[in-house]
């Protein structure tokens, strides 16, 4: 029975840790929230007091945290992972954070003769629950191979992206493009409807033309163009506007650091910042930008 | 032997008219440019002096012109189509123009007991040459059926989009989305490369993820990611930046008239206006926006 | 007693015509709305049935209409101005419309040996009421001199801008810049407040620094930074978001026609289109963009 | 004779330190570049080996560094300021950096019973040379009073902005607005010229209307509209595009951290990123955006 440490039992992490338990791993877990701790304990995990206790107990560590401040704290605080980590430990960080933050942590791990890979995910809460996540992995090839045995229990795709930080880079670039496309599809569909087109007809032509994309042919933001997607259910569930705003913010940080101009990416970020601060839109699927643009009194 | 009138023998129109000749139609043609006239004459067309002469000779008219001023002139000038048009004539306008301009012309035709459909195309010069264009048709269903026998000789898809003006609407909406996506892909690929990713790897992951789209998986603007596309040949050929600027401008006119907000569409328009006024970029394929964004000293 | 024709007695026009009456002009007026007609009649104007009747009665014509369709109709309809206009008539068009529309009308007037100047205004309803408008005049210099005697009764500045259409050009350019600045000030003030600054302190430093502008030092959109402006009164009165959206739309039409890139102008247009379609913002002063950006739950 | 420590003798810092020498201060200085050290030594400064040596020698410290990495290094490295700083020392940081970085450093100073104020400047190299800089100061009021005696020798305005970090906030907000206005003026002037207006006439009207701002009435980016500004000298000197890109990047970092939407600010940032990566524009005054927008072949 293999032991895995799991730090961060939030909306995503609790499902991921549970999928490891289902696959007969022994899970030693930590979260700041006692309620989250209790839930996973009742499902069979061992709960410890500090991140340092997790690192003391196993050489396989997974972290799933909301931002780089949390990741830094979990690794570098006085009761953090780096206090007790053993040589040969593999740290798998599934948090979505700045590329530079991933690279910084990996260096601190290296000083302890431990390995670090960044492995951010796509697939959302549903993917976490059903173990259908995609992991985008950056790090040494052998660490990627070693991580696979854990990641495959929580997801269906584990994609190798190159050295440390490349998992973050791939996720940030894909999601920036996704945000741009979702707004673009919403603008084009709304304009078409206002010009007198039937939205299903417009979508069907776009989907076989040069405008086709995932946001149009698989996840269309116009209600009732495609069945079973959030737009048909008043944008409940799915990938929230706040999360899209977060990922687009990471893209902007990268754009500034790399001096890579991203005019549409930055405007997409601003639009999702507006949605993310609005009570009607912030907790809705990111396709709700269609509703924001099309709504008139 | 069916007779067709063809007005506008430019970059697109001369190939389209030639494809009608190849399919044993009798073509009566007009263009402002004597050189264009002479070329088509040597291929078998009959050349007349004025648009009115074309309309006097046949009830099947095709127009392929660069903008709505030209279309208006060809129809309403003193030697224009409307001077001599017979009841029962079908006017097929393949120009890409404002939806409102199409609707206005259709009403003038109706007053003469003639029909009008708008049938703008996609597929570019290559599509015109190889008779592989897509026609997006707006007009009465029976006019669409009647037009098909001509359009099928010049293209491979003839898509019915609803009433008059809907062909323009579909083309404008699709191309606005296309312009947004091409810039978005260029931004994401450039950012990824600057963050240390291999462009082929990044494209391959995007193309199986939520960021996938035609501009990424079929027409990638990064040189050598996909073989045989303009980006591999310094952006020669393809769909020019100036044409994209034109189509995005039509989308902005529609956005203003319909009061449909298009933030990304308007920014895409401005970026292609910048490219279209720059000697290094104006005559290049619209994927050249990647070069514009990635170029550093 | 000099006679003036006045066509268009709306929100602005009724005050302007009244100021002419107050200055002892004889006013012959027309409006589509009988209520507006009745109001001005009770103030001393003579009301006629058609624009053609106004033009038949006087060689001094003022038009104040909401858009170029209305202007075109008033001039070219069968009962329009051009039916009865006499040689030597001066048409003063104070409508804010496309530059190209002004130029087109001026040519039709010229064919009748009449003159045309465009003279759009700034100053809003308050300026119309108090005769403190600014007129931006495009046309022949002697027509400008002739127009002055009328315009000075309705405003306090009559600025000569050059040939026909230049009045529109100046107004469109100034108002595009104004829209950009108002959003810019709103963004900067909101960001500053979120960073912990007192808005009055921030404004006072900006107003003596390189960021100073009219939207900051005279019309600040943050409530209670400057007394007596619309932001202190929940953005009531002032210059409405819908009017700003209209002017920014005219700037976009000009940008497309002239191939002059206006990235910030087009984004400003889109933002005011969003505000202009929102019930909470559409009828408010354009400074309400601060409220839109700063509002969080 | 008062002693002052000065760390960072770059384009700005060398002039600032020299102005202290001119005012009979004893200056103990450090820079990474031996050439810069030698220059200031020949002007009378004492040069030391490490930042720690500066802090060991005086309780009055000024830092003028290009970014927060440098500031962090100068304070926290093993030979950094914090190694040797005495209680009662006042650190005046004139670097333009993230507000959060200023606040973090101030806390480290506080742990050593030392004070920290952020005092970023505006006025550029010319202002540094002529001692006409403006300092925007954030920190305790008594620290501000103490700092004044030094700052007044290097600038003509020392503005108190509130607590630590507020100097950065004011500078970032003002300069974001400035960047927006400069692009806005450039767009409006270029559009006006393309619409047929004389640029001097247009500027003169804007400057007495609601579009007036510093970028139009004092620093107009159109050549020969105002005498003696960089636009008249092919944009040589002045405030460089790269520096504007840096400040707009800091504004974007703040916008993301504070969740304050800045649509125009982010687009302005992207535009200056494009200019800052272009060999023709990167070293020019930021008014060169006019040239970028107006240039056609």
Could you describe the 3D structure shown?
The first copy, chain A, has 297 residues and is an alpha/beta fold. Chain A folds into 2 domains: 161 residues, 3-Layer(aba) Sandwich (Rossmann fold), CATH 3.40.50; 127 residues, N-(1-d-carboxylethyl)-l-norvaline Dehydrogenase, domain 2. Helices cover 51% and strands 12% of the residues of chain A. Chain A has 14 helices and 9 strands. Chain A has a 6-stranded parallel β-sheet with strand order 3-2-1-4-5-6, with helices on both faces. In chain A, β5, α6 and β6 form a beta-alpha-beta unit. The longest helix of chain A is centred in the middle third of the chain and has 29 residues. The radius of gyration of chain A is 20 Å and the shape is elongated. The termini of chain A are far apart. The model of chain A has no long low-confidence stretch (mean pLDDT 96).
Defining traits:
2 domains, N-(1-d-carboxylethyl)-l-norvaline Dehydrogenase, domain 2, elongated, Rossmann fold, alpha/beta, homotetramer, 297 residues
Short note summarizing the structure:
Chain A contains 14 helices and nine strands. By secondary structure, chain A is an alpha/beta fold.
């Amino acid at each position: 029975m293999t032991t895995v440490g799991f730090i961060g039992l939030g909306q995503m992490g609790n499902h991921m840790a549970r999928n490891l338990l289902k696959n007969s791993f022994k899970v030693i877990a930590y979260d700041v929230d006692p309620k989250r701790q209790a839930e996973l304990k009742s499902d069979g995990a061992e709960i410890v007091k500090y991140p340092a206790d997790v690192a003391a107990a196993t050489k396989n560590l997974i972290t799933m945290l909301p931002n780089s401040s949390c990741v830094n704290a979990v690794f570098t605080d006085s009761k953090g992972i780096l206090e007790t980590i053993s040589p040969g430990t593999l740290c798998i960080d599934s948090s979505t954070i700045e590329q530079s933050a991933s690279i910084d942590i990996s260096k601190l791990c290296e000083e302890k003769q431990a390995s670090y890979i960044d492995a951010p995910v796509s697939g959302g809460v549903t993917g976490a629950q059903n173990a259908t996540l995609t992991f985008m992995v950056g790090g040494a090839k052998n660490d990627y191979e070693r991580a696979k045995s854990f990641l495959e229990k929580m997801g269906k795709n584990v994609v190798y992206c190159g050295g440390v930080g490349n998992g973050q880079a791939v996720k940030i670039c894909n999601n920036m493009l996704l945000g741009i496309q979702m707004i673009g599809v919403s603008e084009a569909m709304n304009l078409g409807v206002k010009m007198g087109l039937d939205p299903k007809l417009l979508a069907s032509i776009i989907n076989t033309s040069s405008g086709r994309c995932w946001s149009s042919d698989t996840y269309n933001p116009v209600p009732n163009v495609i069945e079973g997607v959030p737009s048909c259910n008043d944008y409940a569930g799915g990938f929230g506007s706040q999360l899209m705003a977060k990922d687009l913010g990471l893209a902007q940080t990268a754009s500034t650091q790399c001096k890579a101009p991203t005019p549409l990416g930055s405007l997409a970020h601003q639009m999702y910042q507006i949605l993310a601060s609005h009570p009607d839109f912030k907790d809705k699927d990111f396709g709700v930008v269609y509703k924001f643009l099309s709504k008139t009194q």
